[in-house]
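Incident log, support desk, overnight shift.

02:14 A customer reports that sequence design results differ from what the structure should imply. Their input is reproduced verbatim below. On-call engineer (initials T.W.) acknowledged and began investigating.
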């Protein structure tokens, strides 16, 4: 059992982000950036609670906003799944592939992707009901299920989860902390950029909302791309060490 190397995984993440940059950038723009931009520009404006509103009114306003934006967010999330699979395929295909081939692959595996995401979400949700710690541990153990799906084209949605559990054996906490540190950095950078944009351009209808939407969608797309690269790097390290094969 090899020990997971965070530094090596981060270096490989950077390598992946630099490789096929034009191709992955095209897919990210179409499936990560543009859907988020459409939601930001044309989606419903969040409901603002009245001045001096109490906690029940604030909660009600938040619920109204969530109900109004849910269909838009769901559509963007489904498109992001296709983009994620296509990008992972571009990075992990051992014989090389084109954007068209990767998108066709992603479309074919899309139903399996949805089931894998639902199953992992249910597992983490059930673990969170017991205690937070088991849920965090599952994040590490199930982190390479989607890269497995993209690399091996597995149709059975149970198999990527089973193989992820096997590949991450003995490294669950190390992988979780690595993913957590990357997520914290992405969150801090995103909040700074979005906050500065909001302060400068504002969020009122018109130019302010358009500028804020571009920044939010751009930051989200870049953050998602980094997260995808990190998960792919974790998988590449564990797959090579575990199976003795190598990626191009």
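02:41 Re-run completed on a clean worker. Output:
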């Amino acid at each position: 059992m090899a020990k997971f190397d965070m530094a090596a995984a981060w270096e490989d993440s950077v390598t992946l982000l630099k490789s096929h940059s034009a191709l992955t950038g095209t897919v990210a723009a179409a499936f990560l950036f543009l859907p988020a931009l459409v939601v930001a520009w044309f989606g419903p404006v969040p409901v603002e609670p009245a001045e001096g509103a109490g906690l029940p009114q604030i909660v009600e306003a938040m619920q109204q906003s969530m109900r109004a934006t849910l269909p838009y967010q769901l559509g963007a999330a489904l498109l992001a799944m296709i983009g994620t699979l296509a990008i992972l395929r571009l990075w992990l295909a051992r014989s090389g592939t084109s954007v068209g081939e990767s998108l066709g692959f992603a479309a074919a595996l899309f139903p399996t992707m949805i089931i894998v995401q639902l199953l992992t979400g249910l597992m983490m949700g059930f673990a969170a009901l017991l205690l937070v710690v088991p849920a965090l541990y599952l994040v590490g153990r199930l982190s390479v299920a989607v890269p497995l799906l993209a690399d091996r084209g597995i149709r059975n949605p149970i198999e990527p989860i089973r193989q992820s559990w096997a590949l991450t054996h003995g490294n669950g906490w190390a992988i979780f902390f690595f993913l957590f540190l990357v997520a914290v950095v992405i969150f801090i950078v995103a909040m700074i950029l979005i906050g500065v944009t909001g302060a400068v351009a504002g969020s009122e209808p018109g130019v302010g909302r358009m500028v804020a939407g571009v920044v939010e969608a751009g930051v989200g797309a870049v953050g998602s791309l980094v997260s995808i690269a990190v998960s792919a790097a974790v998988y590449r390290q564990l797959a090579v060490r575990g199976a003795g094969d190598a990626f191009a």
